Amino acid sequence: MYKGILFFLIACLGFTDAISDPGAGYNLSEEKGLYAKIADVPLNTGSGNIRLPELYQQTPVMLAFIFTRCTGICNPFLLHLKDNLESLGSKEKFKVLVVSFDPADSLSDLNKLAYRFGLQDNDQWIFATTPQISKLVNSAGFYPVWDSSRQQFDHDALLVGIDKEGLITKKLIGLRDVKSLNWMIRSIHDEFMLSYPLPRENMLFSCFSYDPVTGKKSPSFGLLFLVLPAILTIMLLVWFAYQSPKWRLKSAQEIPPAKN
Amino acid sequence: MASLSLKKVSSAWIITILTLFICAIVFGILMRLNQGNDIKLSPNGFYTLMTTHGLTMIGIWTVAGMVGIQYLLSRYTTVSAKLNVFALVLTIIGVIMLWISTFVGNFHTGWTFLYPFPFYIAWAKWATPLFLWSLAVLGIGWFVWSVGILVEILKKYSLKQAFAWQHLSKKDPEVTTPPFILIATVSLVGIILCLITAVILLILFFAEYYSNGSFKNDPLLMKNLTYFFGHTLANEALYLGVALLYELLPEVSGRPKFKMTWYIALAWNFTMIFVLTAFFHHMYMDFVQPLGFQMVGQLASYFASIPAAAVSALSVIFLVYGNKIKWSLTNILFFIGVIGWMIGGIGAVIDATISNNIVLHNTLWVPAHFHTYNAMGNVLFCLAFFWWVANEFAGSQETTKSHKITIGLMLIGGFGFVLMFYIAGAASVPRRFAFYPNELQIGMTTATWAAFFATLYLIAMLAIIWEIVRKCIRVFYSS
């Protein structure tokens, strides 16, 4: 028996290990590294040199990673962020820290970028470089890849929300709407936020369908799975109800009289 | 009459269950010591213990009830020892796989393995599939076993008789259904239903795991399925223990057997229905669940617990009150078990009330109530059966031997242990924390005291278990 059990276990391990790749299907980048502390790095800004903790200890920070030579997402990303923040008109106090992750960028490059966006005199926005960019991007979970053929970085448009304790409370990847930005503002101020993942395209069985425009929920196909066990059990019992007379007849000789 | 083969396999079950029980208590004590800052476990080590402790306890006390049901069923109908052996073998294989996944693979999601935690690989890569497959092996074994026991009941009684429906329409029906048969049937149907739910849940887990991300699950659906399975199984396991009580308590107390009445039939049929929807109370914080479901959760929690508990408690009180009882360890364990069940049940109903749950949700109040009706309820019901059956194997029921010290230790240890959970829960100390920050000093203090009381409980259990196991081992040498 022991050999059989051992064989079964080894077979299970071998089988499952051979056909699975659990890491492949998961892209939960926005949820990775939440509540980790952002690295303590020095920042070179237009108004002088400071350390990052000095900044977030005063007000929470939204940290955006860009590089000035970017021909891709960086400019639309910053423009979108600026427009959304303006339309939001939030009264909450926070800073937007734009840091270049390209070691070739200088403070003057970033000042020019700020000027291009009309943000050079906006106190809420800080454009900075840091000599410890690797430490900063690693702590934020941001991993740009240099493409030498295009002379560009492959990277996400990542916005990192940092609260007054330096903890990463939220990440947003891509060009996001005002609503998402509002969540980030609330999260960096350590407000409790209700959240639930919405049904996605490859989610075949969800309990409810949700219309984000109207906010209405309607029952969906997945709810059947909650009823299915009861249906199958009832079917089993109905089948038993028809079969049990045969069993009783068959085993009538073996059964002791009932004790009441 | 139980055959020798049934006695042997029941003995093997009892020894297996009690060995795992002792290990799981030790895991629990280590966890509480860590929360009390008395020992230092790594967070991963703590959650590994928590996962193993939870799954082992819920599993062994479910099968303990089934062992008892099948053994006592041999008084009424023919039972298959082979079916029992099949379930035992798959259970041992399943437990070995499970413990390898947790202790070697370091899998540590907690016993509810709530989606998507199993896919956040923070342990050996192979541990997730091994864990899920271990549940599949256990589920298959128990499903076949439950269906088999139900078939054994239906050899003797029609489905209507098994549910005692004839007692609802007639005062003295032609065929009387013993309460034991009714409660066993109701519990087995519930167990079959929640094991089917577990199969669906596992299929969805496997589908996502092996599809490499092309198929995703809905967290809300997975959570509903998890608690449909988990909450229902925990409740049905308790009801199996209650079935043992209905069959044995009057007998060992020297009183007439419980008679089936319309209200017992009605209470248990209601319980069967309502317990299936009570799990919605686990979803109160899931704001995307429609309000109607939350209301069903609260109402079903009341309706599922009150009829069965009230009828059973009153039946036991009337059996004992004003009557000369032959007290033995068996009926003392049953009696204390009813008290534990009632206290835990009240704690559960308090927590299942939405306005209270806002305060008590995920605090130590939750382990407080379920440890009360398990450690001081269902465990004692099953232990009473184990004690009774071990003595039956030995050839005589002991009624004279004093167990005062053991019972005293068990009462102080057991109720002291759960009281620490209640105090901390009422003070809003969160559950599932590997260690508590200084702000939650009460969590640390109560954890240390809980470990002390749990050690007393463990000593009492060891004393009882030693005698049970000794007698069970003898069965293997009999012919």
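The longest helix of chain A spans residues 224-250.
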